[in-house]
Write a structure and sequence with these properties.
The strands form 7 sheets. Strands 16-17-18-15-14-20-21 form a 7-stranded mixed sheet, with helices on both faces. A 6-stranded mixed sheet has the order 11-10-9-12-13-23, with helices on both faces. It contains 16 helices and 24 strands. The protein is of the alpha/beta class and 502 residues long. The longest helix is centred in the N-terminal third of the chain and has 22 residues. It is 37% helix and 22% strand. Strand 14, helix 10 and strand 15 form a beta-alpha-beta unit. The structure holds nicotinamide-adenine-dinucleotide (NAD). The site of nicotinamide-adenine-dinucleotide (NAD) has 30 residues, from helix 8 and helix 9. Nicotinamide-adenine-dinucleotide binds next to helix 8 and helix 9.
Length: 502
């Protein structure tokens, strides 16, 4: 016991003890700052718990522990099978405590508890297990050079990794980084967003219980401009895996340059959802709702721009708006809820600002467009109605900027070329969607879209078996799938002289 435990009753009724310290060297410890970080329940604006935050001194301490762990035979000399087994054990413990993990997360950021535990929970566990499966499958290459010489490559872990995550998928984003980092023999310091500090603390406890040696997995809460910056610019950190906004991603790149860290960036997006006139419009409307309003629109690849071919726009917009209006906005722990509040006051204000700009700039409101009064929350909380605008033109702010809320901008196009040009008219390049029953056309269009991912006749279906990442200002590198292993390993080339004499 560290004296840093708080007793909480989760909104799903489960009592838990949560350690609110910094997790360094397998212990929960106090930070060197008197300042604390308070998590606010976005459904009722009440505080949940206050946690320790890491200063530069605390980051130094964690990096020293990480370096020692990386060089410790208890970790360094584990066989690939041992690393796989450890990760499987961690995943099994997470599954056993899925209620606690997903209730903490839902409480912290306002996600519908039951549906996020089912959908995101399966992805989170699957991702850890998928990467556990890679631990004993890392191979190198051999290079024949001449009869007297050959070369071969081996894959070495990068070393001390810093993982900086956002608040929209705190657990999933952690798994995307913990999985490949640990499967390949790295050590990792996880810094959750200041808007979602809680679930990672519980995760830390479970990874310790799984048997990870001290210093291999550490969690430091804190603000981005201090704790995040200290990790990104630290000379003892070898790699940063960052997920967050494009603006912060650029700052992280600059900080990481100090020692030429390996960097992966998963940043913002402005996904275009193209509906051709030969699409199954009912399916398109359902998927547009799923991919646009899911997680209260707080998804990096949310299909926030819908481009509809002229001729079917009225029919599509009617279907889409009916489905949007059927959304049950409500309390995260009410099983009927399909859309919870925005995750924070800051985010709520930002989204309402975009709604204001759409009204000012002449977009036509079809549905929504205002805060939602949640009676069950006594009128409190950061709820916003699912909102659709039509007549959106490319010069409007809601066409160009990432709203990160339940606001969808609909524009129309005449030809295939125009659809491609509109979709590509963005500084972002994370994802795009094509709806058409003509698969030849859908594939042709997909290949012309400047994005890391294209979904044909579906939306937003991230799968940990497939690589994910952005082009343009949506990111650098790929997470998930086999490609993720490249970001956590260095290819080392060994030259072997079999007989060349000097
Ligand atoms: P954010 O950029 O504000 O913060 C992300 C993380 O960076 C947080 O942990 C924050 O504390 C930290 N941070 C902030 N300033 C920092 C600095 N100077 N140095 C180091 N770290 C710093 O983003 P957010 O609001 O938490 O998340 C929303 C954004 O994340 C959206 O733009 C969304 O598109 C993006 N996102 C992208 C993906 C993807 O896979 N491409 C996935 C989820 C979210």
């Amino acid at each position: 016991m560290s004296g840093l435990e708080v007793d909480l009753v989760l909104p799903n009724g489960k009592p838990i003890q949560l350690s609110i310290g910094l997790f360094i060297n397998n212990e929960f410890v106090r930070g060197s700052s008197v300042e604390k970080l308070t998590s606010i329940d976005p459904a009722n604006e009440e505080s949940i718990a206050s946690v320790e935050i890491a200063t530069e001194t605390d980051v130094d301490r964690a990096v020293d522990a990480a370096r020692a762990a990386f060089n410790n035979p208890a970790w360094r000399d584990l066989t690939p099978e041992d690393r796989a087994q450890l990760l499987h054990r961690a995943a099994d413990l997470c599954e056993k405590h899925l209620d606690e993990l997903f209730a903490l997360q839902a409480w912290d950021v306002g996600k519908p508890y039951q549906s996020s535990k089912a959908g995101e929970g399966a992805h989170f566990l699957g991702c850890l297990r998928y990467f556990a499966g890679w631990a004993d499958k890392l191979t190198g290459k051999s290079f024949p050079v001449s009869k007297d010489k050959f070369g071969y490559s081996i894959r070495q872990p990068v070393g001390v990794c810093g993982a900086i995550t956002p608040w929209n998928y705190p657990l999933t984003q952690s798994a995307w980084k913990l999985g490949p980092a640990l499967a390949t023999g790295n050590v990792i310091i996880l810094k959750p967003s200041e808007h979602s500090p809680l679930a990672a603390l519980y995760l830390a406890k479970l990874f310790k219980e799984a048997g990870y040696p001290p210093g291999v997995v550490q969690v430091l809460n804190g603000y981005g401009n201090r704790t995040g910056e200290a990790i990104a610019s630290h000379l003892g950190v070898d790699k940063i895996a960052f997920t967050g906004s494009t603006a912060t991603g650029k700052r992280v790149l600059r900080s990481a340059a100090v020692n030429m860290k390996r960097v992966s960036i998963e940043a913002g997006g402005k996904t275009a959802f193209i509906v051709f006139d030969d699409a199954d419009l009912e399916q398109a409307a359902k998927w547009a709702k799923e991919g646009g309003f899911g997680n209260s629109g707080q998804i990096c690849n949310a299909n926030s721009r819908v481009l509809v071919q002229e001729g079917v726009q009225d029919k599509f917009i009617n279907l889409f708006s009916d489905i949007a209006q059927a959304t049950t906005v409500g309390l995260p722990f009410d099983d009927a809820t399909t859309q919870g509040p925005q995750a924070s006051k800051m985010q709520y204000d930002k989204v309402l600002g975009y709604i204001h700009s759409a009204n000012q700039q002449g977009a036509k409101l079809v549905t929504g467009g205002k805060p939602y009064t949640c009676d069950a929350a006594n009128g409190r909380g950061y709820f916003i109605e699912p909102t659709i605008y039509t007549n959106v033109t490319p010069d409007m702010t809601i066409f160009r900027e990432e709203v990160f809320g339940p606001v969808i901008a609909v524009s129309t196009f005449k030809t295939e070329d125009e659809a491609v040009a509109l979709a590509n008219d963005s500084t972002y390049g994370l994802a795009a969607v094509v709806f058409s029953e003509n698969l030849k056309k859908a594939h042709r269009v997909a290949a012309r879209l400047q994005t890391g991912t294209v979904w044909i006749n579906e939306s937003n279906g991230t799968d940990y078996k497939l690589p994910f990442g952005g082009v343009k200002q949506s990111g650098l590198g790929r997470e998930l799938g086999e490609s993720a292993l490249d970001g956590y390993t260095e290819e080392q080339i060994i030259h072997v002289n079999l007989g060349v004499q000097l």
